[in-house]
Each structure stands twice: as C-alpha cells, then as structure tokens.
Amino acid sequence: MTVWTHDRWRFPLPDGHRFPIDKYSLLRERAETAGVEVREAEPVPWAWLEAVHDPALLDRIRTGTLTVREQRGLGIPWSPELVERGRRSVGGTVAAARFALENGGLGMNLGGGTHHAGRAFARGYCLFNDVAVALDHMRAEAGARRALVVDCDVHQGDGTADLLAADPDCFTLSLHGARNYPFQRIASDLDVDLPSGTGDEGYLEALERALDHAIPRGGAELAFYLAGADPWHGDRLGRLALTKDGLRRRDELVLDRLRDAGAAVCVVLAGGYAEDVRDTVDIHAATVAAVARHVEPRAPAAR
Ligand SMILES: [Zn+2]
Fold first, then answer.
1. Which pLDDT score is estimated for 301?
2. C-alpha–C-alpha distance, residues 6 and 24, integer Å
3. Which residues lie closer than 8 Å to 115 by C-beta, 6 or more apart?
4. Ligand 1 centre from 211 Cα, in Å?
5. CA angle 92, 112, 46 (to 5 degrees)
C-alpha cells in the first residue's frame, strides 16, 4: 500500500499551540514500521488552487497579507513555510485521489482534510480545501464527475459545504458535534448534528443512517473520507465520546460501504487534538491499517 505525506515541511508555531504538528511525522513512522510505502507529496501549482479558491484570497496567502481578522480566524501564524506545507498537503490528497482512481481502489494522504477552507476564506487551521481541489483536478484529469464527501471530523465541514454543496454531482455529508466549531454553519447536503457525549453506539447508528441516505444519492465514482481523530473522548477540541474501538468500527463501516458501492476512495486525516499526541496517532494509524486491509484483497497480485 502507498500513502502520501508532507510531514517534513514544518512551520513556526508559538509554544503550547494546539496544532498537532508532530502527529504527521509520528504517523509516518508508524506507517513505515507497518510496511506501508510513504511518498512525499509535491506542492500543487497555484493554478490548481485558483480553479477553486478566490484569487484575491490566494494572493493574500501567497504574499502574507491576510487581514488581522483573517489571521485570527486561521488560528496559526502565517509564514512562507506554512504556505509551502499547505500546497504539499493538497498535493498529497491529489496524489492519493489519483492513485485510488487509477488502481480502482483506495488512496490515502497522511494529512489533508482541511475542511474549514472555503472559496474565499481560510480559517480553523485550514489554508486550502484539499478535497475540493483534488476533486476539481480529478474531474479535469481523469474525467471522474460524481463524488461523495464523508466528513467524520468532529467539526462541521463548512468550507467543503461552501465549495461543493451546490455542486449537483457532489454529495456532501458531515457528521459532527452539534455544539462545536464552526458556530456559523454553511449547510452540507446532509448535516448530522450529534449531541455532546454521543458514544460509540449512537455515533455508529447515526453514521449508518447517514450513509444509507448519502451513498445512493452520491452515485459516486470518487469518494473522499475525512477520518478525523477528534470524535475521540479524550480530544481537547471534540465533545463526543467515542472510544478508539468505536473509531475503528467507524473506519470499517465507511470503507466497507464506499467500496461496496464501487467508489474509488481517497482517505484524508483531518483533525485530532488529544492531550498526548500519541493517542491521536494511534487513531490515525488504525485508519491506515483499515485502509490497508481494504486494499489488499483487491490488489492485482491477488486477482
Ligand atoms: Zn476537527
């Protein structure tokens, strides 16, 4: 199995900042130890970003001239390194989506899931919307039109909804904590608001119902799965109460259903803010393992 990363492109953060910069390199190590091939993502050209995002916003990002309000909403300080990393994070999702389509199966980026970036806004630690850019580019490059986004990060996917909810060939599903960021929502095709404290069983039932609704409407050739680690009970920014086992069952359910529906699946990480970053890495590493299990039975050697 092959996955993509951009973990070596770090950026300056103030001491004690909650952005989990270390999870990416720790996850790369875990994946390599498990025998997964990890490739480094290339930065996407600005033209690919311009096909999706407001050119004036991109100009402010490129030149470091975000307004004070934009800078506050982004929540991480601008730096040239941050911009380079952001372009590589999108590049990883594009590469993983391409790999999934070309191999009729699954691809994964050990990053991405930056779902709070919309057409003309970059906020909540999200500079560019990797999923929207990858979909746009795969439509141009591979002719894949119909898409489905299954967003299981604990926060609502407002940026993705801004970019894709009105797209008739893309169904956007977001399953998230009702009382959590972002507090002003942009509606997805289907938003599932879960009460604080929802645990494994309630979550998995709601997810199953949502997939029953979304998958037939999506009719997707290409699906994106945002496997956020932040629904975990110990997460500092989540308000749900899933266990690591519940999150594993979530991954299995989503991957089984999407693969049964015949979609190529691109998996991305999204958030994860455990006190001890190793808990977040455990959850993401379990997603990598779930993806590997779903890849192998369909690998060419096994046919
Ligand atoms: Zn999140």
1. 47
2. 8
3. 126, 129, 131, 151, 153, 155, 157, 158, 159, 160, 174, 226, 270
4. 20
5. 60
